[in-house]
Amino acid sequence: MKFIRQSLSLFLSCCLVLASAPGGFAAQADQSATQSAVQPAQQTPEQLQELVAPIALYPDALVAQILAAATYPDQVVEADRWLQQHTDFKGEQLGKEVDEQPWDPSVKALTEFSSVLANMDKNLSWTSSLGDAYVNQQQDVMNAVQVMRDRAEKAGNLESTSQEKVSNKGKTIVIEPSDPEVVYVPEYDPWLVYGDPIGIWPGWYSYPGLYLGVPGIAFGFGFGVGFFGGFGWGWHHWGYDWHHHDIRFDHHHYESHSRIFVNRNNFNRAGGFHGASGFHGSSSSGARGFGESQHRFAGTHSGAFSGFNHGGVSREFSARGQSSFGGGFHGGGGFHGGGGFHGGGGGRR
Questions:
Q1: Rounded mean pLDDT of 20-36?
Q2: Residue 262 to residues 74, 139, 200, 271, 281: CA-CA distances in angstroms?
Q3: What average pLDDT does the segment 264-277 reach?
Q4: What is the structure's pLDDT at 154?
């Protein structure tokens, strides 16, 4: 009897182990799948250079605003549509109305540069890829900007003018407005201006006032930044610390807390994110989240951009960005006349 009891006990134990094993194996498989899912391949230096080519020659503070805003592509869409619907707002009135919106400060700041914001909306797949790259490869993105500036300078297409000041600080090339109260957005062909031709970002569309179909750089109208000077998100609140490869907002580190892109460097496999210090942007955007904005825009626009799906939401946003194509140019408030063209030598070879 003792032998029978021992044998029965052993048999029941084996059955229990076999019954629980599939669940354990499944849990291990799920965990392995989760770990692999949050570690997609990083973009190469060449891909990042293509990605930043359209903005690398912009003034530093504008590059900072664009990179920060690109992490909120849903708000970029909303802000550009809002501007198109409120063309009657100008100058300080526009600033007051923008100040009431629940957007991140970077998106609010770009309403001053309506053509830049519209270009990001129109090329939403590119914007999404830029935002994802900035969240996950911040230093690599900044290195790519400096590489492209160096190429444009060596090609003879980047130099100080009456519109902007180009200075070399060691190996760093800094671009600032010549007049701190008037910002000129350079016009250039991002695939021609850097000397030897580079690959065109898939699905890229040029936007009136930002694109020049020949080698070199031109300047059209200047944007007077005084209108938004009294708001906490205006031009003078933004900058870049090239030494630390860091966007600065109000003299502090800017950190996007957009929920659209996973910060894979700080991802906690237990189911969350490791927090980091610094300014996190607008609290309202975090509370609303991507889901509501996606629901708001889904199904309202048709078409799709071709191209890489580097950005975590490229496919979702690309369908919406197409609606801006052919929409025309809409101006912002307060332009200062200017203009001019320089550069030349660095075309396709």
A1: 47
A2: 15, 17, 26, 12, 16
A3: 48
A4: 96
More confident residue, 32 or 121: 121
The tokens describing 262, both together, are 């996973």
Distances (CA, A) of 251 to 134, 166, 246, 247, 278: 19, 22, 11, 9, 11
Tell me the two tokens of residue 181. 């109260």
Chain segment 144-181, per-residue pLDDT in tens = 999 999 999 999 999 999 999 999 988 999 999 999 99
Amino acid at 38: V
Tell me the CB-side half-sphere exposure of residue 218, using CA atoms within 13 A.
Answer: 16
Interatomic CA distance for residues 177 and 271, integer angstroms? 44
CB atoms within 10 A of CB 255: 20
Residue 139 Cα to chain centre, angstroms: 14
Tokens in use for 290? 């991507």
Neighbour-count burial for 302-340, b at 16+ CB within 10 Å, e otherwise: eebbebbebbbbbebbbbbbbbbeeeeeeebbbeeebee
Does the pTM surpass 0.85? The reply is no
Block residue for tokens 């996190």:
280
For residue 224, how many other CB atoms are within 10 A of its CB?
A: 20
Give strand pairing partners of 323: none
Residue 193 contacts by C-beta under 8 Å, 6 or more apart in sequence? Answer: 57, 152, 155, 157, 215, 216, 217, 343, 346
| pLDDT greater than 80 at residue 120 | yes
Query: What pLDDT shows up at residue 80?
Result: 97
Token look-up 């979702």 returns: 316
Partners of 335 in the β-ladder: 223
Per-residue pLDDT for 233 more than 60?
A: yes
Please list the residues that pair with 224 across neighbouring strands.
182
